[in-house]
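thought: fold this chain, then report.
action: predict
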Amino acid sequence: MATEFVCPNCGRTCKNAAGFSSHRRKCERASDETGEGSSKTAEAFATKGQAFYDEVVGAYELSVVELRTLEDICREIDLIERLQVALDRGSLIVPGSMGQPTASPLVQELRQHRAVLDRLMKSLALPDAEAEQGSRSESARDRAMKRWGAGGA
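observation:
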């Protein structure tokens, strides 16, 4: 069964991992030089990115810098989704440059983009509702321990 690799930037398909990697680098350089992608507005995000954008903008007032970071986060969310779909349609194991079985390059790309998303989310530093709930529970427990004593006597 032949595996096709789909470029996340332009949608072009490649028949092998080496061709995919080469095309992807050229495609990214071309989009950087032409500036394509930089003119996207918030409405240009795909479903998951747009949903996240709408939720955050509806809940928080963000500065210009935070909005820019949020846009990057939404693009990463959408890119991760596209890479996951491409990986789901393909195979985890593909022929390497010498015909040996090797992991699909999409596996590494997904891992890297998830790390980027994690860093962007941390840099945006939105309050975590669950963490806030946990800290309230801890402080309530601490107050109860002070009031009633640690030994229950």
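thought: worth noting. The mean pLDDT is 79.
final: tokens above.
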